[in-house]
Amino acid sequence: MPPVKLLFICSRNEIRSLTAERLFDGSAQYQARSAGTQPQARVKITEGLLGWADLVFVMEKSHLRRLEERFPEAMAGKTVICLNVPDDYAYMDPALIEEFEGKLPAHLPAWPPRAGEPVISDQLVSAEEARALFLSGSLTY
Fold first, then answer.
1. φ, ψ for residue 87, nearest 5 deg
2. What are 104-123's pLDDT values in tens digits?
3. Cβ neighbours of residue 135 under 8 Å, at least 6 residues apart?
4. Which residues are registered as beta bridge partners of 86?
5. Residue 132: what are its φ and ψ, rounded to 5°?
6. In sequence order, which residues have a C-beta less than 8 Å from that of residue 75 and are 6 or more positions away?
7. 38-48 pLDDT, tens per residue?
8. Which residues have C-beta within 8 Å of that of residue 64, sequence separation ≥ 6?
9. Cβ neighbours of 138 (radius 10 Å)
10. Can you list the domains of the chain with their CATH numbers?
11. Which helix (H) or strand (E) is 123 found in, with range?
């Protein structure tokens, strides 16, 4: 079975959506990408990215409104889930990871492989180990 394609959207694609994307690195069940809605986004949302995705996750309702305004045809019939994640975090912030770990399993029953343990580069590690890898520079983006 091919992996489910997940697209995470925030404003600038620097913190929230990029963190969510990284949590799926190495997953055999899911393929994740991320983008932003603002002109200065690291990766800007495109009609092609929306077409690629099986599921779209937005961090705020304002992101959904922007997508519907800019890409009405690509959004028609698309499954979009608003996670209601505020822009209060740093990239790979442990509290942000916890928020995703608390919200995503309701929409992705096979994730995480074991509750509270993200997949990093084909290895199952605890959230604490993932944080340590990131802080040591071993896990980069």
1. -85, 60
2. 999 997 777 654 444 444 44
3. none
4. none
5. -65, -40
6. 50, 67, 68
7. 999 999 999 99
8. 58, 80, 82
9. 10
10. 4-136 (3.40.50.2300)
11. strand 123-124
Burial code (b: 16+ CB inside 10 Å, e: under 16) for 42-54 equals ebebeeebbeebe
Q: What is the pTM of this model?
A: 0.80
Question: What is the distance of C-alpha 87 from the center of its chain?
Answer: 14
- 12 and 38 Cβ atoms separated by less than 8 Å: yes
More confident residue, 38 or 26: 38
Q: State the DSSP code for 2.
A: P
> Peptide bond preceding 112: is omega within 30 degrees of 0, i.e. cis?
yes
d(CA 141, CA 134): 9
Contact yes or no for 34/9 (Cβ under 8 A): yes
> Could you tell me the two tokens for 116?
């509270």
What are the beta bridge partners of residue 117? Answer: 114
